[in-house]
Amino acid sequence: MIREHYDTVKQNIGKDTSLCIVSKHRTPEEILSYYEQGERIFGENRAEELIRKAEVLPSDIQWHFIGHLQRNKVRRILPFVSMIQSLDGIALADVIEKEAARAGRIIPVLAEFHLATEDTGKSGLDVKDADALFAHCAKLKHVRIDGIMAMGPHTDNRDRIREVFTQGRELFDTLKKTYDIHILSMGMSDDYTEALACGSNMVRIGTYLFEK
Length: 212
Ligand SMILES: *Cc1c(COP(=O)(O)O)cnc(C)c1O
Prior knowledge:
Blueprint: H1 3-13, E1 18-22, H2 28-35, E2 41-44, H3 47-56, E3 62-65, H4 74-77, E4 81-87, H5 90-103, E5 107-113, H6 130-137, E6 143-150, H7 158-178, E7 183-186, H8 192-197, E8 202-205, H9 207-210
Pyridoxal-5'-phosphate (PLP) binds next to strand 8 and helix 9.
């Protein structure tokens, strides 16, 4: 762990924001160094890597899947994940529903939105498809949408970053009027302070916590 960076993050996020430590590409030892500080939420974006690590690390780690999830990987990751942050469509929701029912679990998920439209090729839902997905999932018994996730734009323009996170916050507030959601997952190493200023209550930080 990097003490100085960890202390900075903890100070910046405060008590009401959750920290999801993004541990993709990191070793079990590096993950344990944060586990020993009391951290329990770790994010992975590859199914095989998540399973490999979950099998050797403490069972009270809450693994969040944060990458693009192929439907044929759902069954394999389900026993290990406590949340899927990257729900990007009705078809995937239906597969999670089927597999979660089979496993006798209710899976908390976040709906991932593609807000930074200048970043092409990124996954995530269009805002215009939000209602259809949320209405559909409200009928599913084993999928529970707890909130939304979004990424900031890939730019140094801080105003543009705040603009996108503000859009995420407004979408969250709108959906919250109809649906029982409470997690707004926005912000990574380079933009989490902007995300916090815009109301994020879960940040996903990797690089800054593992690299000097
Ligand atoms: C890799 C990743 C992060 C963490 O990014 P860093 O810049 O390393 O902090 C957060 N969210 C998602 C979805 C990621 O894929």
